[in-house]
Design a protein that fits this description.
heterodimer, A: 225 residues, mainly alpha, globular, B: 226 residues, alpha/beta, Rossmann fold, six-stranded mixed β-sheet, 34% helix
Amino acid sequence: MQFFSVIRWIAWKDLLSEYRNRENISSMFFFAINVILIFSFSFSLDPETIKEIMPGIIWVAFGFTAIIGLGKSFLVEVNNDCMEYFQMLPIPKGAIYLGKFLGNFLFMLSVEIVLFPLFVLFFNLDILDQFLKLLLISTVATIGLSALGTLFSALTVQIRAREVMFPILLLPLSVPIFIGAVEATRGILSGDAFALYRHWIELLVVFDVIFVVVSFWIFEFILDY
Amino acid sequence: MATAIRGIELSKSFQHFQVLQSVSIEIASGECYALFGPNGAGKTTLLRIFATLHRPSAGRFEILGFDGNRERAKIRAAIFLIGHGSYLYDDLSVKENIQFAIGIRGWNPTDLEIKKALDQVGIGRFAKLRSRYLSAGMKKRLSIAKALLVRPKLLIMDEAYAALDELGVAMVNEYIRNFTKEGGTVLMSSHDRAKTAEVAHRVGVLNRSVLNEMSVEEMSAADAIF
C-alpha cells in the first residue's frame, strides 16, 4: 500500500506545484502555439493537404512541447536538494519514478487536450467526431513519451549540459512512439476503419510497457547508486 | 548501552583527494556526539556516509546494528538527516511540505500533530505560507519539526546551529536534550563550542582526514581544538 501512497504523494506534489507556479505549462503552451501558427501560415489549408500533413504537425507540436516540459521535470527536485531526501527515504525508489511519471503524464495530456481546439481553429479541422479516438492515441503515445522523458530528466538533471543531453537521449528512443502516433493519427483523420490502424496503437502499447518497465527498473540505480 | 553507530576504518576519496583516512568511531544509543573541524576536514562527508548518501571508499559501518552496505533500507527507516539542503518545495506551503515529507514515508500526521510540531519549533503561524518565503532559520526550524514528527532513532545534524537565532539554538538544544533522554542518538557537526557543550556527551575533532576524540570538558577548556 505504501508503494501506491508514494506514487500519489509525488504526483500530488508535482501537479500542485505546477498549478501554482505555471512555469512549465506557460512555456510549453506558448511554444506549441508558435509551432501551430508557423505551420498554419506555411501550408495551404485545402482539406486534402491538411489530411496529409496534419498528423506530422500535431506530433511535432506535441513532441517538442514534451521536450520543454519533461526536460525540467526533475529540476524542482535539485533546487533544495530534494533528490537527496528521496535517496534517504526507506521506500522503493521505483515508486518515486512512477509518481513523477504519473504527474508528467497527466500534465502533458492536459496540455495536449488544450491544444486540440487550436488545431481545429487554425487548420479548419473537423475532428469533433474523432476526438475520442484522437484522445486515445494521445494518451497511449503520451504514456511512452512521459516514461522516457521522466527517466532521462532524472538522468540528466545533475549534469551541466542537461539541455543538450536531454533531447539527444529522448528523441532517438522516442522514434517508435512518434511513428506509431503519426500513423494512427493519419488513419483517424483520413477516416479509415479502426482495423486499418489498430496495429499502430498496439505498437504504441507495446513500447509503453517496455519503456515504463525498463525505466522503473533503471531508476532504482540512478537514485541509489 | 547498545551501539548506535559503529564506523570501522572508514576512508573516503573524491577523485584523488583523500577526505577521510581510516576513521573509526563508536557512538552509544542515547548519546549526543559532536563533530568539530576546520572547513573541508570531512565532517559532512562522514555524516553523509552514516546517512547512507555516500558509500565509503574503504572500511565498513553499522547503524543501529544494520550493515551500512547491505541493509541501507533498514537504516534509512531509522534515521533522519538535517543537512545543508532544506528539502522543501518552494511552491508548497509549510504545512503541505510537512504533509508531503512525512506522508511519503508512509505516515499521515493529523493537522493537530503538524500544528503541534510547528508550534514547538516556533513557526506555527507560518503554516500556510509558501516555503519560498521562509528565511534560512525558519527552514531549519521546519526541518526540526519534520524530525519531531518522524521520531527517528538516530538524528544526524550537519551544522546544527547554522542560520539559527538565539531562540532557535535554545530550541534545538532543548530538543536534543529531550531526544537523547528518550534514548535517541544524535550525531552533529558544529562550529560553536559553547552551544554544543550544553548538549554534547562526547566530541570528535576531524582534522586532515583524521579523527581525534576528547571529552566535552577538554574541548571547553582548550584554547583551540584544531
